[in-house]
Amino acid sequence: MWEGCSAIQVRESSPGKTLSMKHYFGLDQYYFNQKKQQIPITLDTSQLINGHTLLCGMSGVGKSYQLRAMIASAQRSGIQVEVFDPHDELDIPGSKTAKYSEATRFGYNPLALNPDPHSGGVRKRINWLLTLLNSTSRKLGPKQETALRYLLQDIYYLNGCYEDKPSSWGKKHITEAQRAAFLEQNNYAALKQFYPTLGDLITYAERKIKALYLGANSPAITHLDKVNKMAAKLRRLVGQLEKVSDDDEAMKLEEKLEDYKHDTISAYSDYVHSIETGREFTDVIKYNSKDVMQSVFERLKNLDASGIFRPNPPPFGNAQVRVHQMKSLSDDEQRMLVQLRLEELFRTRRDQPTVNDVQQIVVIDEAHKFADEEGDNLLNILAKEGRKFGMGLWCASQSPTHFSEDFLTNCGTTILLGIHTTYWDGACRKLKIDESILRFIKPHHVAALKFQRKAETNARFQNVILSQPMPTQLHA
């Protein structure tokens, strides 16, 4: 659990009880127009392969309205909802909202470890962080990546998190205010009870840069270099002595050899006394470029300035619906925040027993900004694995063409509210939908829906008349 801040709350259903969600969309258009029958079209998560939903439509066709209506249905079902809102537009009654910006300073510690001995640890976290940074428009160069990897390895080691010791991976979570208080008291020992933060990493990187510019490592390295040179000279003198046959010359070499031995011992003593950390020589090898270290340091400072990597989780408390407002963040910052939170949400759910129905839904508006074909993208991971851990992923976007095949084939529900004709060819190929279905769509009136039900392999799209009153038999 978080120390001094709001943790992710996991709402567990009662034994034998599921949190099945039902949401009424409207009436089947064919039966309504051709046979004058009212056939209700209702989403029922207990009947679908999973709780994932893709909601597509160009601007102005009612995506936000449908999202709010579906979230309201999830609320009535007792399901937890986590909403990522890139435009700060989703006003959801009963929700608790957090706005991310440099001013609010809300964020999450990216250096907190997964303590699981099989799926977590230092090495995996470092690899994940490097992948996260390289998923942005500003990828790390090979030398920058190597330097940052060394910095991360060092900061974890200094905080007592060891790569080969899983028992050291479980630390406490710290807030920015707590960290500042410990530093003010010079209580560095207490800090080792907590996971390191981006602030710790920046401070450590700054020390390494100063060492490069000021030569802080030079005394030990200089003395060691002197010892090595004198040892080489000693070996040469010993070799000369073995070849000398004249007694007088041999005596002179022996005296010279004794003097060099004394000087070498003195130089070694100077080297030993100049050692401060024991890592001076290793640091010279790892951190040998001022330019590389300076570029990594500046990248870390920019990440810190965004606020999203500060250890100050929003005070959501036990709110059922949590909205993350991200309009003030850049596209790269939004992408990193979403991936960081999805990783934590998925890990938390994965640690719970498997369930039969949806217990938590993650809603991502403008989801195409966060989608790609990469297997380690959390959207793709959640689409494939979230169901068994009670997670549903709802993605809203302008077109289905922005999403991977893995994601599209793992959606229990697909909703098309009216996509631009530019995307029709791609949508028909990716969704295996007939163009005639798209032609019948009328924004705000008629949509196309597909439900992938359990034990069905050939689900089809159907046109649905929206905004029709729910038949009375469904009100009960």
Task: Quote the beta fraction.
Answer: 5-15%
Tell me the series of helices and strands, N- to C-terminal.
EHEEHEEHHHHHHHHHEHEHEHEHHEE
Q: Biggest β-sheet: count, sense, barrel? A: 11 strands, mixed
Please report the first level of CATH classification, the CATH class of the largest domain. Answer: Alpha Beta
> Which stretches of 5+ consecutive residues score pLDDT under 50?
1-17
The coarse overall form would be elongated
The class by helix and strand makeup works out as alpha/beta
Lateral strand order in the biggest sheet: 2-1-11-10-9-3-8-7-4-6-5
- The total tally of domains equals 3
CATH fold group of the largest domain = Rossmann fold
How many strands? 11
Helix content: 40-55%
Cα-based radius of gyration, to the nearest Å:
31 Å
Summarize the SSE layout with pairings.
Blueprint: E1 22-28, H1 29-34, E2 40-44, E3 53-56, H2 63-76, E4 80-85, E5 96-99, H3 122-134, H4 142-158, H5 176-184, H6 188-191, H7 198-214, H8 218-243, H9 247-274, H10 280-286, H11 290-306, E6 321-325, H12 331-350, E7 360-364, H13 378-385, E8 391-397, H14 405-408, E9 413-416, H15 424-431, H16 435-439, E10 446-451, E11 462-466
Parallel strand pairs: 3-8, 3-9, 4-6, 4-7, 5-6, 7-8
Antiparallel strand pairs: 1-2, 1-11, 9-10, 10-11
Helix pairs in contact: 3-4, 4-11, 7-11, 8-9
What does this molecule look like?
- The structure is a single chain.
- The chain has 476 residues and is an alpha/beta fold.
- The protein folds into three domains: 22-105 and 317-474, P-loop containing nucleotide triphosphate hydrolases (Rossmann fold), CATH 3.40.50; 122-215 and 281-305, no CATH class; 218-277.
- Helix content is 43%, strand content 12%.
- The protein is built from 16 helices and eleven strands.
- The chain has helices at 29-34, 63-76, 122-134, 142-158, 176-184, 188-191, 198-214, 218-243, 247-274, 280-286, 290-306, 331-350, 378-385, 405-408, 424-431, 435-439, and strands at 22-28, 40-44, 53-56, 80-85, 96-99, 321-325, 360-364, 391-397, 413-416, 446-451, 462-466.
- Strands 2-1-11-10-9-3-8-7-4-6-5 form an eleven-stranded mixed sheet.
- Strand 7, helix 13 (378-385) and strand 8 (391-397) form a beta-alpha-beta unit.
- Helix 4 (142-158) crosses helix 11.
- The longest helix is centred in the middle third of the chain and has 28 residues, at 247-274.
- The radius of gyration is 31 Å and the shape is elongated.
- The chain starts with 21 loop residues before the first strand and ends in a 10-residue tail after the last strand.
- The relative contact order is 0.20.
- Residues 1-17 have low confidence and may be disordered.
